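Discrete fold record:
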Amino acid sequence: MRAGWRLDLRGSWEPLGVRPDLTAWSKAMANGFPIAAVTGTDALRGAAQTLYSTGSFWFSATAMAAAKATIEILREIDGPALMHRAGTRLREGIAAQAAAHGFVVRQTGPVQVPWLSFEGDDTLEKGIAWAGACLEEGVYLHAWHNWFLSAAHTDEEIDRALQGTDAAFAKLRAAYGAD
């Protein structure tokens, strides 16, 4: 649900070689419009047909059109490849900056859905201070939650984010010193 089409248009499990019985999709499939879907294998079709369900947005043509357009555009532009490229640039840039400022950081998750933590920062004090310094620089990166890249993140936007993260590392070093 979190990574969705950021890794592969067939779903985030595809690069892992996993074929789930059921998959949940949410608003990302319609670029933020209110929609959700559950897809499954043919083996579950009969059981699913016996269920009664209802919902608030069943007849929302706008969300359906947005989902269709989102899927078509992501397919056209190879959205997962764009997000992978942007995430790789961001991750590599942050790693170089952290090292240059004397910090040991760990970046986890796929590059399209990264998260950063500081070595030995069990209380997230440094992470929260760094995220706050990033915000002061106009870059919103969550201190204890994954970040989400999209196909809209251009090289220019990643460069701008890296300017902000570099300034935030400098502020953190001034406040805490290096690791």
Notes: The mean pLDDT is 92. The first helix runs from residue 45 to 49.
